[in-house]
Amino acid sequence: AEMGRTLVELFYDVVSPYSWLGFEVLCRYQHIWNIDLRLRPAFLGGIMQATGNKPPAMLPKRGEYMLKDIKRMAKYYQVPVKISEGDFQRIFGTSTLGAMRFITAMDMTQPGYLEPLSREFWIRFWSQVSILCSRLPDPFSVARQAGLSSELTQKLLEMISSPAVKNRLRETTEEAIKYGAFGMPAVVAHFHGEPHLFFGSDRLELLGSVIGE
User: Which residue stretches of 31-113 are H helix?
Assistant: First the structure.
């Protein structure tokens, strides 16, 4: 982190709508708060497996609540999350490993594109649900929307299956677990030489308070 700026790491996976909310708020506040925001693409499936966590919507009552909650949060934070009952099942049946490896390859190649690229994946997953029909977004159209050249996209796609990218994603996921993450988004603020973990997109006021913002 730059002198006097608090390093804030955001561990996220594009399968998580709450991660999208947290991502958008932190992307806005990085220009207001004295923070150095570092986006850390990780794999939610790996975190769930390692910690024995289950998708919250598997509990029917909680699933009902989440539908309302995400709609309210989306309206409040002005993030275009669109969600209906069938979406949870559809999304849980889809692995984002490929998408998160693609985003990781971008992080390793041109991290400046990380924010727009991640946002485009969320838009495909959680905003343009109708065009999805239960398949993963096509990386080429997502990348084009994010402003990437087809050459760069091709290069990233070739990197996806490389040990370097697989290991980087695994290491980032393990790092999140080491900080105590059990779900996403996991936000880690490094303040006064200590990491402070905040889970979820509804703890950002608390994060601000802890770091003196």
Answer: 44-51, 60-77, 85-92, 97-109
